[in-house]
Amino acid sequence: MDIRLYLVNGSHPCVTVEKALQIKGLPYSVVELPPPAHMAVMKLRFGKRTVPGIEIDGEKISGSREILRRLDLIVPEPPIFPADPAERARVEEAEAWGDDILQPLVRRLLWPTFRAHPELLAAYSEGSKLPPIPAPVLKASAPLITAIEMKANGASEVTYREDLRTIPAILDHIDGLVADGTIGGEEPNAADLQILASLDLLMTMADLRALIEPRPCGQATLRLFPDTPVRAPGGSIPADLLAAA
Ligand SMILES: N[C@@H](CCC(=O)N[C@@H](CS)C(=O)NCC(=O)O)C(=O)O
Predict the structure, then answer these.
(1) Which listed residue, 22, 132, 211, 220, has the most CB atoms within 10 A of its CB?
(2) What is the CATH number for 198?
């Protein structure tokens, strides 16, 4: 089977899909695209401008939720969706929340942080297989890149402030999902993959990691993604805004 995953380095829904491929033991190759140029390439190739997209023997599937369902059909074991219908509904509800609410919130927090600290773009490029962009060029192009991404993701100074204020409630919600066994179990399910990949990316920011790591949801994230480093040092988020979180 020929599987090609189209991704942007560090993108959380791409991490969700990569982890699912690994859990299923499916070999795959990666087509890495640079942001924000990936939007045009993906639109041309998949008809939708977002990553992840996947080609399985030429069949194109776009979107992390759609891809996970397809992978579970191709390789049923280990399952990432529970067989019991009620349990499956619970996991799918949590997965949808992770996709619709948490995923965009992470983007609305990251891009304004990059805008304020363009030097972080280099740290977040680590792990990329694309030819390295010299740091001065990256810094010079940061205002344009971050402006395009903030617009595409509906991020602004206002959303930044509001999203930071909602962080405790968001983390309480995820801790609730751990407490009732929807996520955080022995075998990761689709909701784990969706939600914890987003928390993993938030935990690359030292300021937020300090809030997340001690919680049950932080511990569940570290079990699934033990190796992700901190990329944005403490102080990257202004202290007065962080205080609200
Ligand atoms: N929620 C969808 C979309 C993912 C998504 O928005 N990906 C971002 C990168 S993390 C993207 O490609 N954004 C470009 C855009 O919004 O046009 C999924 O999980 O597949």
Answers:
(1) 220
(2) 1.20.1050.10
